User: What shape does this take?
Amino acid sequence: MAAAIGAVGAAASVAACRGGIGSSSFGVGRGVDVIIVNARVWTVDPARPEAEAVGILGDRIVAVGTRAEIEKGRGSATRVIDAGGRFVMPGFDDAHIHLMTGGAELDNVALKDAATPEEFVRRIGERAKAVPKGEWILGGNWDEQGWPGAPLPTRALVDGVTPDTPVFVTRYDEHMSLANSVALRLAGVTATTPDPPGGLIVRDAKGNPTGILKDAAQGFVFRVIPPPTAEQRAKTLHRALRHMAELGVTSVQDMGPDPDDVAVYGALASRGELTARIRAVPAEIALAKQLGGGRVRHHPSAFLKVSGAKGFADGSLGSTTAFFFEPYSDDPRSRGLLADEMQPLEGMRSRLLAIDQAGEQLCIHAIGDRAISMVLDLFEDVERAHGARDRRPRIEHSQHVAPGDFARYARLGAIASVQPYHAIDDGKWAEKRIGAERAKTTYAFRSFLDNRVRVAFGTDWPVAPLDPMQTLHAAVTRATLDGKRPGGWVPEQKVTVAEAIEAYTMGAAHAEFEEANKGSVTVGKLADLVILSGDPFRVAPEAIGSLKVAMTIAGGHVVYERR
Ligand SMILES: [Zn+2]
Assistant: This one.
């Protein structure tokens, strides 16, 4: 290796060899590309938990150590970043997002914080005046739980302000949407339309649709919304990438993306325009169909890969479609709804077997305790049929776990892919829906860790904010958003700051088989780093949520710098 690398220190030389980094990209004396000094580096690497400085060459970390050690790699072409004593850590890897829905939300009508039905209507009416005639009003992330009496909105509510604008606004959990009369007409949904499998058309006393379509019934309207053009998609993606960079998110795992969006990811990847790494996880239904045709894996750059398969076992707690062993405490007639993909179960099993046979990872959404148990059964079926291997099956959300099932996760090597922000959001009302006993093993992050289950953190953006600080805060405090449980909802399930960071970096990297490349500040790994405005270990837990990202580095490039 060249002198410049040798000068960085013995650790760097070893790792440079291990990481396969060549010396041809820089001349002797030029030094490494970037050094970060005067930092408190939290590495998430048990071999060296803390350091003062980091050296970067190309897109890799080539040295981690004391300031004096790293300064030796400094040359005439080295950019020196003085962290000002601040906290440096691996970039956040969000294990579960909906990238393009999130990107679109950044420009959509915002309904999540509409405090009353009147405010909800006012915002939709305003948007209707702003959009060109005939253009759809979509997204919104509405949440009726804060409204007096929590009534579901109806088309009658919004028809007056949207006489010729189609509206299809979605609840924040994406398990139901409200269509206005224009949208229902375009979709052909009437009083005589039967409920589809895994879906529900909410009807009034006379049997007429109220406009609320739950789960699979949303498909009636989604099918008639014109798809965006490739240019519109690229614009949305750029918008999302900016948002990620500002928040220190350097990797995302995009669940069930539209294949046309994945094509746009590929176009941006080949032009070098991705500033965060995207792992696209196709829908299992779509993937299972492709397997017969001889699928080719798609890895156009270090910033994009397409792998795994995302499926659904049930709905959500907010929409009372999460599937439980026992009835809902506030709706004794219902135990929830099994997703259409699970009906018949044999169909799901054979698709999952085919996907596993192809070597792909299974990532199945399951929220209710019974849905989770059924998915664990399916994972066991797969293991029994194909033998043991390092397959890391994932249960997305893993919200309400039957006490006996933690050990099954551990035995299967199954990953709990969880979103701590949901706990402080749903925690406002979840207990009335499931009762105190089930709440004990709800969002049970501590129980997972105590049972040696690997946990990966994410947000489910745009269901929850993409901001990792808010997720860390949620996991550490479990303080509900309504301020009513400042000591934490089910406080036994809190995790430490170190555990939360681990789950958001190494945990998420492990969950996508990328632990050799990402997840820690370790020599040889990709130079994906963030500098925070403050130290999450040294501020009060309540203050973690307001920490900001000062700088984001992805693949050795500064992709965001806070002014
Ligand atoms: Zn999701």
